[in-house]
Each structure stands twice: as C-alpha cells, then as structure tokens.
Write a structure and sequence with these properties.
The termini are far apart. The longest helix is centred in the C-terminal third of the chain and has 21 residues. Strands 3, 4, 6, 7 and 8 form a 5-stranded antiparallel sheet that branches. With about 210 residues, the protein is of the alpha+beta class. Helix 1 packs antiparallel against helix 2, helix 1 runs parallel beside helix 3 and helix 2 runs antiparallel to helix 3. It folds into 2 domains: about 130 residues, Immunoglobulin-like, CATH 2.60.40; about 60 residues, no CATH class. Helix content is about 25%, strand content about 25%.
C-alpha cells in the first residue's frame, strides 16, 4: 500500500489558532501499511507538505438568508506548511499552527463553521500523496458564548428564562455537532446559525 498521509485537528482555547498534526505514523505491515518508511515514502524523502482549506463560516449575514437561500462558502486557501514555515527536517507528528490571517480571514479569532482540510505530501519527483479530506466543524465561539451566558445569569437565577435558554442552546449545540458528525452538514450549519443569532441577542459574543 502506498503512503496515505493523515492529519488530526484541534483549536486553541482562545479560538485564535487551529493546530494541524500529521498523524500518519511509521509504516507497519500489520497495523499501519499506509505510514512513512520502506516500502513507502521515507520521512527524509518528504520535499513538501501542503494544505488546502475551504468551507463555510458564520459571517455577519449568517449561513442562510431569511428566504432560506443557500449559504456562501469562503474562498479556498492553499498553504505551504513544509518546508516553510516549518524548518527541516520533516518529523514524525509534525505540527502546524494556522491563524485566521493565513486563511485570509479578518479578526483575531476563527469564525464558527465547517472547515474542509485537504493535506498532501510531495516527494522530490513531484509525486503527491493525498490524505482523505477532513471536515472540521468549528464551534468554539458558540461554546464560549453559551458558557458566558450561563455565568452571566448565575446560579441564583436558575429559574429565569435566560438560564433555561442557555441550557437549551447548550444541548442544541451538542445536537449540531452530532449532525455534522453524521454529515448532515446543512442541518448542522443552520443550527449553528440559530445559536449565533441567540448569542448576538444576549450580548455574549466571544469575537
């Protein structure tokens, strides 16, 4: 089996960074036949690592127009990760850190939405080894908003409508994440948009 690179994604708690980690691992005939090393491409033979990102984010207008018109995706961005800005040699579990500016986004934080990452490794002969694209459903702003709302109302107001709404949207966010995991992308984005609208009305935005 040829090399098939793989990545894992996470975000910083301040929502300003998305971390991309190469988790391809080393070749093992039994448990990891798609990893780096003989008979596949060796780590030392990696000439470049590149990332293509596109997707749909929550802008001020939301995912959907009031009429229910389709959402508008953001432009695809091609990023060279190795050898620049990461310094050679290429390492196992290579870590890359993305910022909003690298994806041509304004503001200090990544907006919520669906990010689709396509990762490729290139060798010295310009052969490309492509990972399976990864969907990353980013919900950090919605989560932050709901936590702020719960703190805002406080335990002394457990019977008020605001707290009930906050717990409702906390569960609603869990449902949106589950929908995204089941590839119900349109439904997940619509739910995330409704949460963002509620957050705006509560003055609990984290942007």
């Amino acid at each position: 089996m040829a090399l098939i690179p793989s990545i894992a994604l996470s975000n910083s708690t301040d929502l300003s960074k998305i971390n991309v980690v190469d988790v391809t691992g080393l070749y093992d005939a039994s448990i990891n036949p798609q990893g780096y090393g003989t008979p596949n491409l060796a780590l030392s033979a990696v000439a470049a690592a590149v990332l293509l990102c596109d997707g749909i984010t929550a802008q001020a207008s939301g995912y959907y127009a009031p009429s229910g018109a389709p959402f508008v995706p953001f432009s695809a961005t091609f990023i060279e990760l190795y050898p620049s800005p990461v310094v050679p040699p290429f390492l196992l579990n290579e870590l890359y850190t993305l910022t909003p500016a690298m994806l041509n986004m304004a503001g200090p934080n990544f907006p919520d939405g669906l990010y689709v990452f396509s990762y490729s490794i290139e060798d010295a002969s310009s052969n490309f080894y492509n990972a399976v694209p990864v969907n990353y459903f980013f919900t950090g702003n919605a989560f932050c908003c709901i936590q702020k709302a719960l703190l805002k109302y406080g335990a002394d107001y457990c019977g008020c409508a605001g707290v009930k709404d906050a717990y409702f949207y906390k569960n609603f966010l869990s449902a949106a994440i589950s929908a995204a995991g089941c590839l119900k992308i349109q439904e997940a984005l619509q739910m995330l948009y409704e949460i963002s609208q509620w957050c705006s009305s509560q003055g609990c935005s984290c942007n």
